[in-house]
Amino acid sequence: GTGALALQLLDALEAMGQAPRRYTIVDLSGSLRERQQATLARHAGRVVWADQLPEAFEGVVVGNEVLDAMPVQLLRRCGGQVGGAWQERGVVAAPDGSLVWADRCTDLRPPVDIEGPHDYLTEIHPQAEAFIRTLAERLRRGAAFFIDYGFPEHEFYLPQRHGGTLMCHRAHVADPDPLVAVGRKDITAHVDFSAVALAGQDAGMTVLGYASQGRFLLNCGLGALMATADLPQRAMAQRLVTEHEMGELFKVIGFVAGVPEFDAVGFTAGDRCHQL
Fold first, then answer.
1. How far is 50 from 237, CA to CA, in rounded Å?
2. How many CB atoms are located within 10 Å of the residue 189 CB?
3. Strands 86-93 and 73-77, bridge-based pairing
4. Are 195 and 125 in contact (CB under 8 A)?
5. Which long-range contacts (CB under 8 A, 24 or more apart) does 161-164 make?
6. What is the spatial distance between Cα 36 and Cα 39, in angstroms, rounded to a whole number?
7. SS3 string of the chain?
8. Cβ–Cβ under 8 Å, residues 139 and 256
9. Are 254 and 262 in contact (CB under 8 A)?
10. Crossing angle of helices 30-39/4-15, nearest 10°?
11. 209 HSE (CA, 13 A, CB side)
């Protein structure tokens, strides 16, 4: 993104006397790098940029709305019954040159059976899971925290969520059709946090915790900060923690690798690992 979160993290850590020796931003976009460099000019001595994760490293990884932007595969069940045939949804060019959906039979399945006789469209997340496995292979010692919107498996694949979660965003307007204005919109899908947790665990990391964003931030002391903040700051912070805003839809999942298990302050209350 713009580097705003990185700036806040670096400013806060510096104020606590815990500024990192190096802060690496993994970003492929040249234009975004320029914006980040301008935003982070006062921390220029410790910020570096990379095109991919290092082959091996120690440290703390922070991913804010990273997993939701990774490509998903669309699966469609037509005609109903549990255990019935599934098709993978793809894209083809119509005779007039426009892009249209096209489905074909597949052996791919959601991780759980979907109850009910109705048509059902959903997503699976092999690329996000592969990213987590890659992270586990390369993070020799440290922790990783991912903040994103999504659900555990049993909520992600509810029978009533028959249209899936794929959405597009452009200029603060959301719509569900990625085949309109192709290349000019962000495409996102909600995260299946159960799949993310299993991918990390199977690859050797330990799940530190899983909580709503609101609970995580309050555990980390946001309430005390809000008490001394001015009204505009309190209003902005309120959006981050209230259930009807971002506090419940967004979740935080944490992993640790190469060190003994420890109690992470963000998960001291309201940990939902048992729901994954």
1. 31
2. 25
3. antiparallel
4. yes
5. 161/122, 162/118, 162/119, 162/120, 162/121, 163/121, 164/74, 164/121, 164/122, 164/123, 164/189
6. 5
7. CCCHHHHHHHHHHHHCCCCCCCEEEECCCHHHHHHHHHHCHHHCCCEEEECCCCCCEEEEEEEECCHHHCCCEEEEECCCCCCCCEEEEEEEECCCCCEEEEEEECCCCCCCCCCCCCCEEEEECHHHHHHHHHHHHHEEEEEEEEEEEEECHHHHCCCCCCCCCCEEEECCEEECCCCCCCCCCEEECCEEHHHHHHHHHHCCCEEEEEEEHHHHHHHCCHHHHHHCCCHHHHHHHHHHHCCCCCCCCEEEEEEEECCCCCCCHHHCCCCCHHHC
8. no
9. no
10. 30
11. 18
The residue to which tokens 């994954």 are assigned = 276
Measured in degrees and rounded to the nearest 5, phi and psi for residue 37 equal -65, -40
Residue 214: exposure state from Cβ atoms within 10 A (0-12, 13-18, ≥19): buried
Sequential pLDDT tens for the chain (276 residues):
899 999 999 999 999 999 999 999 999 888 999 999 999 999 999 999 999 999 999 999 999 999 999 999 999 998 755 556 899 999 999 999 999 999 999 999 999 999 888 899 999 999 999 999 999 999 999 999 999 999 999 999 999 999 999 999 998 899 999 999 998 999 999 999 999 999 999 999 999 999 999 999 999 999 999 999 999 999 999 999 999 999 999 999 999 999 887 789 999 999 999 999
**Strand pairing category for 191-192 and 139-151:** parallel
